[in-house]
């Protein structure tokens, strides 16, 4: 077993020293220097001579019929070049990731607060803003369908979409549903086998990705009648696939290039400004730039599904789980986005990394007049983890057992089955990860005599001097799938070129992978160096000139595009060796590339690559597909649905001011199995970032929606953790290779966001004794003044 | 209106500036300095932080007209004339504190100002000083590392001089 402990900053020095620039090292980011100089071109930095600014008019109502739209006053404003409504769309009026249910511009009705109705192009953003204000829309305002009760009774409250539309997946206002039954299911006889039964309702609020770089891009009309779009996205090819039919263009005339991306976290999986900027560029014949303001960003992308969940667990006196029963209701909002896949994840991962002989589950996503929800880090696994981990703590309390011990007693490991019947055929060190966080040293106890008050809950606001502070500790573990599931042919493409430039062998890696900050570009260079034995690697800008890389989501890019780079580089290596064999008649079968040469492992260097290649480049493209999966059976949820699983465990230490209801997380520890850390520095950065988003969901982050209206679309009112809210996050990395994955690696980015939220809440519970069945936990939940 | 000021030591002027434009807009869209970032334009995230007459400010909250005749230093100005990275910039790269990097320009300016005031801040001082700069990617741990690293290098440099 190969394991390695890398604890936060302490070992930074060691990582550097061990660093080679191949895999397993931590070379610096190729884009780092540009980024610290302020020269890296993010999508909002795009500029073109003569360019116009685009802006959208958005609905103030969550549900209304549009009686009329009058654009005449807006068009009269000097500096306005175009005002478009759905009437002006040349092609199909609808798009969508899985279900084409979303109009590019509203047609006759609006279904959520912030839906785009018309778009404007003008010579200055302020002119565009004024023009938007001059568009007159007459509405017939309708009562929005926003609660589960309203959604599930469409005969009484109405339909979000007409009953005959988009019903391949669901019915009524249900967008998608998935059931699951495992073992004997949950019957009276099975219930009777349990000594202790715990049942509770849980609720998760609507979280936002809140990436810092606003949605933005520049659409440039091309001479061939096509569009060149420079944009921040997670998946260039799927954007193009959705855009082309709306623009009335063949796909090859819609060319996308990735512009610098300021974070994504799922929020850029759906289209935002892509179609709008392109329509305006088509109409005006001029380049059009759209940059969302922060409030527009909150309206312009999908969020994490808020959830209402009921969980029931039965356990024997000695702590063995007997059954688990759950119902998860996800509010998908007005349009489907990724809801069907989120439901699949919620159902199949919703009982956690535990062996439970008898299981039942139903997960549904609703259509409502709330904001649309779709992909966000942890995708469908986050909501359930809060519920099942809360249940584990409750069961442990009922049994008088240590909560970590209870989890370990029921933890799944390699060879066990998921509730879907899928056997886990690679390491699943759930109990070990829990042990690792438990064994890490605790921070020193709170010493109120000598404390710097700035470190207490409430921090700088100097609200107390520690009178009401209680410390708590909580634990959790979570499971997340890697890659796209349920039969999706998930693949990625890479082109690798090896040539001599300036007297040195240089590899070039070209993919369409969206680098959103995660560090994929660093890893691609490491893979090319490792496989080709060269120092110099350049990364070609990501665009649609090469085949699809799939999405930068589902923790899949290092696995999928990294895998494609590996395949392409290996093919280049073989081609180079073949060339040498043909020319020099080598017969050894231990040839490889290293140190810029062709080498025989037994005989040493044969020839420098520079001499073998001369002026001839070797340039090859390969696709990487992961092993096939199948859709879950609709009624039983059975099937080999996921490619790979990933696990993370956490421990949280919190100080809670029980009088003021304020929480300060003192330390948040993580232990995760990453299979193989291709770049340990990046891996740690991903885990720490993922934990921090989980902390946000636990104690502060929520889009407040009342009667379908968003109340806090700003960074003033939607709070994300600052550096003061975020504690030290020591990370312990385990490397147990997955035999099915390239280099044995395991996706990293999402698992900590799944697992870290429940452990913070567990710690607050331990400190306060409150039930805390809803997140984010607010001060009034702690003080009981709700 | 016309606005003239110095940006990173060089005189700049912008014409036809509309009275509601922010310093951030003028820097990014009119004088070719897009390094300062536009993440909220409401003074909440710190991505647009620049020095104005030596004091870090959110440039999205400064009206363009207010900088007439004054000195602005942006992230682009942290690099020296030869294009050599400043000490804080290098530390952010070395510590892995840059992921998407959108928060980075603002954090660099704020960190530069912090270390100018106090070359050896405590962890709590660092957290207090950077609490107006949001980062959504890193979890801040690597940013803490970067500031500590910059501080150590700055002190070592001062000692050797
Ligand atoms: S853009 Fe100025 S503080 Fe956010
Ligand atoms: S690195 Fe992305 S916001 Fe800080």
UniProtKB/TrEMBL annotation, chain B:
Keywords recorded for this protein, A-Z: 2Fe-2S, Iron, Iron-sulfur, Metal-binding, Oxidoreductase
SUPFAM superfamilies in the record: 2Fe-2S ferredoxin-like, CO dehydrogenase ISP C-domain like
Residue intervals of the 2Fe-2S ferredoxin-type domain: 1-78
PANTHER family given in the database record: OXIDOREDUCTASE WITH IRON-SULFUR SUBUNIT, XANTHINE DEHYDROGENASE IRON-SULFUR-BINDING SUBUNIT XDHC-RELATED
UniProt name for this protein: (2Fe-2S)-binding protein
Organism of origin: Kitasatospora herbaricolor
């Amino acid at each position: 077993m190969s394991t390695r402990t890398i604890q936060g900053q302490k070992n930074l020095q060691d990582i550097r020293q061990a660093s080679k620039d191949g895999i397993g090292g931590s070379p610096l980011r190729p884009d780092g220097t540009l980024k610290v100089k302020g020269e890296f071109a993010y999508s909002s930095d795009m500029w073109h001579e003569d360019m116009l600014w685009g802006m959208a008019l958005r609905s103030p109502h969550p549900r209304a019929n549009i009686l009329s739209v009058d654009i005449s006053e807006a068009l009269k404003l000097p500096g306005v070049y175009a005002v478009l409504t759905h009437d002006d769309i040349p092609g199909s009026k609808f798009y969508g990731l899985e279900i084409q249910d979303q109009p590019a511009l509203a047609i006759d009705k609006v279904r959520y607060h912030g839906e785009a109705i018309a778009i404007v192009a003008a010579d200055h953003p302020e002119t565009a803003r004024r023009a938007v204000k001059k568009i007159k829309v007459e509405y017939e305002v309708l009562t929005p369908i926003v609660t589960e009760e309203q959604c599930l009774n469409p005969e009484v409250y109405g339909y979000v979409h007409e009953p005959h539309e988009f019903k391949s997946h669901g019915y009524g206002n249900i967008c998608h549903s998935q059931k699951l039954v495992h073992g004997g299911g949950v019957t009276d006889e099975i219930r009777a086998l349990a000594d202790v039964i715990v049942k509770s309702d849980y609720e998760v609020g609507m979280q936002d990705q809140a990436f810092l770089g606003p949605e933005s891009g520049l659409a440039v009309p091309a001479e061939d009648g096509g569009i060149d779009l420079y944009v921040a996205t997670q998946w260039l090819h799927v954007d193009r696939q959705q855009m082309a039919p709306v623009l009335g263009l063949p796909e090859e005339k819609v060319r996308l290039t990735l512009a610098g991306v300021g974070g994504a976290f799922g929020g850029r999986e759906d289209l935002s400004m892509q179609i709008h900027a392109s329509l305006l560029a088509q109409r005006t014949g001029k380049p059009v730039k759209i940059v969302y303001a922060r409030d527009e960003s909150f309206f312009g992308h999908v969020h994490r599904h808020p959830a209402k969940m009921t969980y029931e667990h039965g356990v024997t006196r000695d702590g063995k789980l007997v059954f688990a029963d759950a119902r998860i209701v996800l509010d998908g909002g007005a349009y489907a986005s990724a809801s069907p896949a989120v439901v699949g994840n919620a159902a199949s991962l919703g009982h956690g990394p535990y062996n439970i002989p008898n299981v039942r589950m139903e997960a549904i996503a609703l259509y409502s007049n709330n904001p649309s929800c779709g992909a966000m880090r942890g995708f469908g696994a986050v909501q359930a983890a809060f519920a099942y981990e809360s249940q584990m703590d409750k069961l442990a309390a009922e049994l008088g057992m240590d909560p970590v011990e209870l989890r370990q007693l029921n933890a799944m490991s390699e060879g066990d089955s998921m509730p879907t019947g899928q056997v886990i055929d690679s390491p699943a060190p759930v109990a070990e990860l829990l042990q690792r966080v438990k064994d890490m040293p605790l921070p020193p106890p709170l010493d109120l005599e000598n404390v710097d008050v700035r470190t207490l809950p409430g921090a700088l606001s100097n609200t107390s001097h520690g009178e009401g502070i209680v410390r708590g500790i909580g634990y959790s573990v979570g499971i997340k799938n890697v890659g796209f599931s349920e039969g999706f042919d998930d693949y990625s493409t890479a082109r690798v070129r090896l040539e001599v430039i300036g007297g040195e062998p240089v590899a070039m890696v070209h993919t369409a992978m969206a680098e959103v900050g995660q560090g994929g570009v660093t890893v691609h260079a490491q893979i090319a160096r490792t496989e080709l034995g060269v120092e110099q690697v350049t990364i070609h800008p990501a665009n649609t000139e090469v085949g699809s890389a799939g999405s930068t989501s589902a923790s899949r890019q290092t696995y999928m595009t990294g895998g494609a780079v590996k395949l392409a580089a290996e093919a280049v290596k073989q081609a180079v060796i073949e060339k040498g064999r043909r020319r020099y008649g080598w017969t050894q079968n231990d040839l490889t590339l290293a140190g810029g040469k062709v080498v025989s492992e037994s005989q040493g260097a044969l020839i420098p690559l520079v001499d073998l290649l001369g002026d001839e480049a070797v340039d090859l493209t390969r696709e990487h597909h992961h092993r096939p999966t199948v859709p879950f059976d609709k009624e039983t949820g059975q099937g080999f649905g996921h490619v790979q699983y990933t696990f993370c465990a956490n421990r949280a230490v919190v100080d809670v001011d029980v009088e003021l209801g304020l929480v300060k997380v003192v330390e948040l520890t993580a232990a995760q199995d990453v299979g193989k850390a291709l770049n340990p520095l990046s891996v740690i950065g991903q885990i720490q970032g993922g934990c921090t988003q989980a902390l946000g969901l636990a104690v502060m982050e929520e889009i407040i929606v009342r009667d379908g209206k968003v109340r806090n679309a700003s960074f003033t009112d939607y709070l994300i953790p600052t550096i003061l809210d975020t504690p030290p996050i020591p990370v312990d990395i385990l490397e147990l290779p997955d035999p099915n994955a390239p280099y044995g690696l395991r996706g990293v980015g999402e698992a900590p966001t799944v697992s870290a939220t429940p452990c913070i809440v567990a710690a607050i519970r331990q400190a306060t004794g409150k039930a805390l069945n809803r997140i984010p936990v607010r001060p009034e939940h702690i003080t009981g003044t709700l | 209106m016309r606005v003239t000021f110095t940006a990173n030591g060089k005189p700049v002027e912008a014409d036809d500036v509309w009275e509601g434009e922010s310093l951030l807009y003028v820097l990014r869209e009119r004088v070719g300095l897009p390094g300062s970032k536009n993440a909220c334009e409401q003074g909440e995230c710190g991505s647009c932080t620049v020095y104005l007459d030596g004091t870090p400010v959110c440039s999205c909250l400064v009206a363009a007209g207010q900088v007439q005749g004054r000195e602005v230093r942006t992230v682009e100005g942290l690099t020296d004339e030869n294009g050599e990275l400043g000490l804080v910039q290098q530390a952010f790269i070395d510590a892995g504190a840059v992921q998407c990097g959108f928060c980075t320009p603002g954090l660099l300016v704020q960190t530069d100002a912090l270390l100018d005031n106090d070359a050896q801040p405590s962890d709590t001082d660092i957290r207090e000083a950077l609490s107006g700069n949001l980062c959504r990617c890193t979890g801040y741990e690597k940013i803490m590392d970067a500031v500590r690293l910059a501080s150590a290098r700055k002190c070592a440099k001062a000692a050797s001089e």
